[in-house]
Structures are given as structure tokens and as C-alpha cells.
Amino acid sequence: MYNFNVRYYDGRLSIAHDATLTLMPDHWLIHYRDPSGELTSVRWAVPGIVTDENFSSLFIFRFGEFPQQTLECKDDSLPATLRQRYPERIFFKKGITRVFKWSNGAIAGLALVLLTLLGLGYWFGLPWLAGAAASRFPVRTEVSMGNTMYENMIQAYDVDQRLTAATNDFAKSIDFKTPYPISITVVKKDEVNAFALPGGHIVVFDGIIRKMKTKEEFAALLAHEVSHVHYRHSLRNIFRSLGGYLFLSLLLNDINGIVTVLADNSNMLANLTYSRELETEADQKAMAIFQADGLDLKGFVDLFTVLKSEHGDMGSLKLLSTHPLTEERLRAAEEMAEGQNGVKEDDELEIKWHTIEKTLNK
Amino acid sequence: MEQQETRQVTFHGEGAKLFGIYIVNILLTLVTFGLYYPWARAALLKYMYEESEFEGSRFTFHGTGKEMFIGFIKAIGIFLGLYCVLLGGILSQKPTFMMIGLAVFYIGFLLLIPIAIHGALRYRTSRSSWRGIHFGYPGDRKEFLNMFIVGCIITLVTFGIYGAWLVIEIRKYIFKNLRFGNITFSYEGEGGAFFWLNVKGYFLTLITLGIYSFWWVKDLFGYYVNNIRMYQGDTRLTFRSTATAGGYFKLIVVNMLIIVLSLGLATPWAIVRAMQFVFANIHIDGPLDVDAIEQTEGDYSDATGEDLADMIDIGIV
Ligand SMILES: [Zn+2]
């Protein structure tokens, strides 16, 4: 009962010996006939025996200094017999590789569970981590980082000093409910666009102001950009795309080029979806500012109408648009505007808006 | 006359198992912030070796995650050092320092490639065995480095033309120094023939809008395999490729489809198909005495090259 059929390699020659293994109390005895027909026996002291970790159903043991002798056994009853014969010695450690001796179905099941976990981590864990990291980022560092970014990029633009002054004056009359120092720069560019940098800098292209008819419309744009600043959207975006990049490069380290390209592109898509969520958040916060200040929410309706006529609806490109579909934003704004009460007419703001309009027309 | 003997290595890996190994590796690498990587690599190599069979016996990879971890840390250290020099140069904002930083970075990188190839060969061969007989690579690092650097400079000066000769030189050197017990190898390719093979492949691929590329890869594979010789005592054995352009076409197109349609998830199955294709198309012709290979190599255990090679992303042999 302590005998097993094994294959034995002596470590000096590549010949495979069909041998018999006998489990003795403190050593293993290996018998075989060498090619000349002579009976040979080898003795392995139990403490020196090493189990080879592997993925197959073959049991492999090695013994001695380099070059090691090797023994292979296919008998399924070997592990149980070893446990019984040498209770104090563990031959088969419960390592991670044991998993691979399961059936393919079980492995596939486990893989599926792990993949789902990875997916959840990527879709929900990463944005959450990005948010957490951004909220722990010190404000002073954020502001100085934003200043550096601003100084570097503003050189590429032609700043309109007078409009910038008028716009900042306009913004001072609105309570944006944010601790960040808001500073607006108007640059001469025909594009209908505006963007916010971390820490309080907002850049507005004069092209978008030209399209505007009311002070509320302009205030809505500013409120939206200020909300990006307030919720640290740039930082969150940076952290998310950086995290996604790290995550995927760790994940795909071993896999080939095609997959990396696929993954890079889907990561970009995921980033865009994420920034759309941030846009929606900015819209909501901006509308809350309007509610609190008694400004007319119709400003948003007008703003989105301008954006819609300018950029088109991009219906088929829904997945690829950074901003939520303008149509969706327009509808949300209309709904909010209908339910609004307590609108106050702000004369001071109106005067400042006229100043901007006059500056524009010069 | 006796029938010509021929032998093959067969690959028995399964996509499902490989997939499982990848997933576990990826997951553990992620949760350990990359530190598990050497163990992941060891597991993968172990599996690939274990599923490769010759004359009824499987190959074994003896390397361990622990050994490779030390190499991994060294490799990371070397890379960090190089990047620090580069970054230091850039941050100094002084043109001279920038140039020096850049030069150190690129020269360092260039030196690392042959060092990595050499180290990886040393480590990988010493950790590979079949029927208890180990492979070995007693090549000389200085010699290899010299050949590599001089070759690179000549390649630069000749606008890349010498590259073909350099590749052949490297193969010759590696095979000359490759051991499997008392079995030795050689590579019989020639730079000139290899160069024209590539010129022909390049232009015909251009002219045929890429269609010829399948013949080109077939020719490259054939030129590699057909020029390998193996010696057991006085017996000379030759390697022979049976790969066809059609076979390559099927392999590449189907593998692309598998990978793209599964969004990469089925990559392990594609890898298994590629391994099977490669092994199925290599024959070893000649009377090899598979029972008489003698152990000759000693023990060797510096794993730095293995990971360096892996980080620079060069596959060996
Ligand atoms: Zn926005």
C-alpha cells in the first residue's frame, strides 16, 4: 500500500526510468532497473524532499543539490497516502496554484466573478476614489496649481482687458456661494466656448458673449463654470483619467498591443462619460445658485438654446460628446424655470451687463 | 537506408486555464500595487513550460517569484535612476544639464538592452529543464555587449542596413553559447541573405498592399528555424520549418478576430493558438538519442536580466 509507480530522473542523464517508490518511515526508496538490467535503488531522506508546485495533475518531487533528482507520479491516491504516512510533514501547500487544478467550469466561474469585481472597481470605485482624492487635495495647492496652468496657457490667447474688467465687475454682483477666488479672463476668439481651471480661473471666449442677449444668460454660463471650480471638477477628472490609466496598464501589462489600444480608447470613452456626469452636476449647482440669488432660470434656457444652435444637436454622437446632450440640458432647464418663483429684478446687474454689451460693440 | 527521424515539441496548454492564470495574476498584481508581478510572471512561465512536451516528457521552469522579485527590484532601481537623471536634467532648465541628462538616459537605455538580453538568457536557461537536464548559457557579457554596441553604431552609420547583419550576429552568438546538457547549438544564417529577404519582403508587401506580409513572416520564421543546428556528440541535427503563408494567414486573421471580437478577453486562447502553431511547424530532424543527454551546467541565479528584458519589452529566442 506504500508502493507507487513513478518516473525517475537521476539529474545526470536524460533517461527516464520507470521505477517503484516505496514510502519508508523516514525516507523514500526508489527502485528501478537501469538499461543494463541491473537493479538500482536510491534513497531520499524525507526532510530533503521538495514538492514542485505546478498546474497539472502530475505530482512532481525533487531531491538533493543541483542537479536535482526528479520523480513524477500520476497516482491520484498519493497525496492522501502521504498525509497518512507523514502526518507532521506538509507536502502540498494550499497555494494559489491549487485553484488551477479545478475543472475548467469552476475556473471560468471564478474568472467571471473576478472580472465583474474588476469592472465594478473600474466603473464605480475609480470615480469614487478620484472624488475622495480631489476632496483631500489642499485648496492652497490647488489654487497655485491653477495659477501655474493659467499663466502657461493664457500666453496663447489675446486677452481683452476691458471686457475682462467689465466681466469681473459683473461677476462681483452675483453670489456664487463658493470660497474660491473667482477670476474671469475674456479672450478674443470667435469660438462659442468657455472653460474653468482648478482654483478659480475662468476663461471665456468673446465669441460666446456676442451670442448672448440677456444678463441671465451670461450669469448662467458663469455660474456653470464657477460650479466646475467649486466641485473641483478638473482635479477629479485628472485623478480619474490618471487612475484609469494606471489601472488599465497594470491590468494589461502582460497582454498585447491590440488590447492596449482598445483599452486606451475605451478608457477615453469612460472619461467622457464621467465628464458628462460632472457637467450635469455643474448645471445643478449653477441653477441652485440662481434660485438662491433670485435670478431668472430662463437664462439657462437661453444659454442652452444658443449652444444648441451653435454646436448642433450631435444626436448620433451622444456617446462622444463631453457635455450632456444639449437637448437634455435644455429640457432640464425649462422644467426648472417653470417651477421657479421669487424672481427678483437685479438693476445693478442689468447696468453692468449693459457695460459689457457696450464694450463688446466698440 | 533508415527512415529520417524527426521530432517535435507539442503544446498542450488550454485557453481556459491560461485565462484563469491571467485573471488571478492581474488581480493579485492590482491589489498588491504591482509587487506581485514577479510571482505572476513565474506562474505564467511555469504553466507555459509545463504544457510543452517533448518525447513524452514535459519541460519545467524552476524560477520562483522570490528570485525574480529581487531582479524586479533591481530593474526598477535602475529605471528609476535613469529617469531621475533625465528629470534632473530637465528640471535644471540649463541646456547643458539637459543635454547631459538626455545623453545619459539614452546611452544608459542602449546599454541596458544587451545587458538585459544577456541576463535574461542566463537566468531563463539555467531555470529551464527537461527530464532533469538543465539548459545553460555560458556566454560572456563583455563580449556580447561589445558586439551589440559596435553593431548598433555601424547600423546607425549605415542607416539601418547593417541591422540585418547585426541580428544574424546576435543569433549566432546566442546559439553558439546555448547549451542543453551536453547538447550544443549553432546558427547558420547569413547577414546578406537575411538582408535581401527583408528587402524583398518589404517591397513586395508595399506593392501588394500588405498581402505579401504573410509570405514575409513565413520566410522570416523559416529563416530563423531552418538555420538552427543542434549537436549531440558527432551527430548533427537540423531544425526545419513547415510554416506556410496560408497557415500564417489563418493564424493571424483568426487571432485578430478572437481578440477584437472578445474585446481582448479571449487573448489567452489566441496565445494558445499561436504557441500550437509555432511548435507544430518546427521539426527537429536527425537521430537524437533522447536518453543520453548529460547534465553539464552549473547553478546560476541572478534574475535581474529577466525582469530588465521584460520591462524593455524584448522577447528572447
Ligand atoms: Zn461645463
Q: What molecules are bound to this protein?
A: zinc ion
Q: What's the overall geometry of chain A?
A: rod-shaped
Number of strands of chain A: 10
The biggest beta sheet of chain B reads:
11 strands, antiparallel
Q: Beta-strand percentage of chain A?
A: 15-25%
Taking all Cα atoms into account, the compactness measure Rg of chain A is 35 Å
Task: Report the mean per-residue pLDDT of chain A as an integer.
Answer: 82
Total DSSP helices of chain B: 11
- How many structural domains are formed by the residues of chain A? 2
Give helix % range of chain A.
Answer: 40-55%
Number of helices of chain A: 11
The topology string of helices and strands of chain A comes to EEEEEEEHHHHEEEHHHHHHH
Structural class of chain A: alpha+beta
Explain the overall architecture.
By secondary structure, chain A is an alpha+beta fold. Chain A folds into two domains: 99 residues, PH-domain like; 226 residues, no CATH class. Chain A contains eleven helices and ten strands. In chain A, the strands form two sheets. Chain A has a seven-stranded antiparallel beta sheet with strand order 4-3-2-1-7-6-5. About 2% of the residues of chain A have low confidence. By secondary structure, chain B is α+β, with helices and mostly antiparallel strands. Chain B has a domain of 89 residues. In chain B, helix 1 packs antiparallel against helix 2, helix 3 crosses helix 11 and helix 4 crosses helix 11. The interface between A and B is large, with 47 and 50 residues. Bound molecules: zinc ion (ZN).
What's the quick description here?
Chain A has helices spanning about 80-85, 105-135, 140-155, 160-170, 205-210, 215-230, 235-250, 255-295, 300-310, 325-340, 345-360; strands at about 5-10, 15-25, 25-35, 40-45, 50, 60-65, 70-75, 185, 195, 200-205. Chain A is α+β, with helices and mostly antiparallel strands and about 350 residues long. The N and C termini of chain A lie far apart (about 105 Å).
